[in-house]
């Protein structure tokens, strides 16, 4: 069982957690300063780096990438993990504002945690059921306040269990105001109906409960997405999919197509290969981290080469949460995220591109629910129900 219980922390646990977070932040900061030559942004520099004004706001694009289903600090940005993320470290970090202590205090299940990232509220929905987020998503805030069409907000999601992520059922938001969601695996199974054996390596839906396979209607809609939206023939899609080695690569293929054809202003991509760690094979987990690292770098290159995105895009990369510490007796190290310890809750976030200061590290603690209100200030909508706080260093 994966941890779905939000543990009540005692005072002692809370003190321990803070101390661990502080140490993690300090070692990561020192490491980054040495390895990537970045500066420490201890205090705010005056004046917003953001381009203001209507024309700037209309062109502004934001891409959010969740870095795998649960990636630990020590396997990524901590000194011993550095070899797994060469692209983030050498290409992206020098261009980024990097936040070393982002904690997720919610439920550590991938769907519910991603929903929380997208609403700015720690959602309490059942991770393994096809229910919408309980609070308005960033997509609804964005589309409602800025009067944007549905083609302007998209989610590419790793598992059929994420099919409701685009839209809440919150009163005065909800139906008709959310993001369009592409489920690349569902697309592939619709396109390959009857011959899916060839694509087994791409179709695995989640790494936690083989018994949970949400049933989603249809296939017609997916084929229409391929044809009219992505402008991709079934034959070309299948041929290309065959050459790919993982579900996240399939997602990235779809993302690039979507950027070219629809150029959404708000694009959310959830990566999930890293969650293969549940199998217990450390080498597969590390391979997936390395792949995710490469895909993030490729995506940033695509941003630079697409005229609709180059120069006006801000990209955020952050894990949904971490994984258990090796020394926590209640867990099994990297394999799961069930203890709710500091290692499984403490992550990082990088922001880069339009309006973001380059090569600066910020050490203060923040929470993953702070993302949505920050996007609100940047893009000009009100994240009215969100419980996070705008990240001043980005504004
Ligand atoms: Zn997991």
What layout of secondary structure does this protein have?
Layout: H1 11-36, E1 39-40, H2 54-59, E2 61-66, H3 86-92, E3 96-103, H4 110-119, H5 138-146, E4 153-156, E5 180-182, H6 184-191, H7 200-203, H8 220-229, H9 234-242, H10 247-261, E6 266-270, H11 282-305, E7 313-318, H12 342-345, E8 346-353, E9 360-362, E10 366-367, H13 371-379
Parallel strand pairs: 1-9, 2-6, 2-7, 3-9, 3-10, 4-5, 4-6
Antiparallel strand pairs: 3-8, 7-8
Helix pairs in contact: 3-11, 6-8, 10-11
The protein binds zinc ion.
Structure in a nutshell:
It contains 13 helices and ten strands. The chain has 395 residues and is an alpha/beta fold. α3 (86-92) packs parallel to α11, α6 (184-191) crosses α8 and α10 packs parallel to α11 (282-305).
Q: Stretches where pLDDT falls below 50 for ≥5 residues?
A: 1-9, 43-47
Note the overall shape. Answer: globular
Number of helices: 13
Task: Give the rounded overall mean pLDDT.
Answer: 87
Order of helices and strands: HEHEHEHHEEHHHHHEHEHEEEH
Biggest β-sheet description:
10 strands, mixed
What fraction strand? 5-15%
N-C termini distance = 40 Å
Helix/sheet category = alpha/beta
Q: How helical, in percent, are the residues?
A: 25-40%
Bound compounds, please?
Answer: zinc ion
Over the alpha carbons, how many angstroms does the gyration radius reach?
20 Å
Structure commentary:
The chain has about 400 residues and is an alpha/beta fold. Helix content is about 35%, strand content about 10%. It has 13 helices and ten strands. It has helices at about 10-35, 55-60, 85-90, 110-120, 140-145, 185-190, 200-205, 220-230, 235-240, 245-260, 280-305, 340-345, 370-380, and strands at about 40, 60-65, 95-105, 155, 180, 265-270, 315-320, 345-355, 360, 365. Strands 1, 2, 3, 4, 5, 6, 7, 8, 9 and 10 form a ten-stranded mixed sheet that branches. Helix 10 (about 245-260) runs parallel beside helix 11. Zinc ion binds near residues 110, 208 and 275. Zinc ion (ZN) binds near residues 69, 70 and 337.
């Amino acid at each position: 069982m994966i941890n779905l219980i939000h543990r009540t922390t005692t005072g002692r646990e809370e003190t321990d957690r803070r101390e661990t977070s502080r140490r993690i932040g300090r070692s990561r900061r020192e490491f980054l300063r040495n390895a990537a030559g970045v500066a420490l942004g201890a205090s705010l520099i005056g004046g917003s780096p953001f381009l203001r004004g209507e024309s700037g706001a209309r062109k502004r694009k934001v891409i959010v990438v969740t870095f795998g289903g649960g990636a630990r600090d020590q396997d990524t940005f901590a000194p011993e993990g550095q070899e797994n993320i060469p692209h983030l470290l050498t290409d992206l970090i020098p261009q980024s504002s990097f936040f070393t202590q982002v904690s997720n205090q919610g439920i550590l299940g991938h769907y519910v945690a991603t929903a929380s990232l997208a609403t700015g509220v720690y959602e309490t929905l059942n991770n393994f059921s096809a229910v919408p987020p309980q609070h308005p998503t960033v997509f609804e805030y964005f589309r409602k306040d800025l009067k944007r069409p549905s083609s302007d907000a998209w989610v590419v999601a790793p598992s059929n269990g994420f099919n409701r992520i685009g839209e809440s059922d919150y009163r005065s938001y909800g139906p008709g105001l959310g993001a369009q969601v592409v489920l690349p695996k569902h697309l592939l199974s619709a396109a390959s109906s009857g011959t899916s054996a060839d694509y087994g390596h791409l179709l695995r839906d989640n790494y936690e409960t083989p018994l949970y396979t949400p049933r989603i209607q249809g296939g017609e809609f997916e084929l229409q997405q391929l044809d009219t939206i992505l402008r991709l023939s079934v034959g070309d899609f299948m041929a290309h999919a065959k050459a790919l080695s993982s579900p996240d690569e399939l997602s990235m293929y779809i993302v690039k197509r979507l950027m070219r054809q629809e150029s959404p202003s708000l694009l959310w991509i959830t990566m999930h290969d890293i969650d293969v760690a549940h199998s217990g094979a450390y080498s597969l987990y590390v391979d997936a981290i390395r792949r995710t690292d490469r895909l993030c770098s490729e995506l940033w290159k695509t941003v630079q080469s697409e005229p609709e995105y180059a120069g006006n895009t801000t990209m955020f990369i952050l894990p949904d949460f971490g994984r258990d510490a090796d020394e926590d007796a209640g867990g099994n190290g990297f394999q799961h995220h069930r203890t709710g310890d500091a290692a499984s809750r403490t992550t990082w976030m990088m922001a880069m591109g339009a309006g973001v200061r380059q090569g600066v590290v910020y050490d203060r603690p923040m929470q993953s629910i702070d993302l949505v209100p920050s996007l609100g200030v940047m893009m000009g909508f009100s994240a009215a129900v969100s419980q996070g706080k705008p990240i001043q260093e980005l504004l």
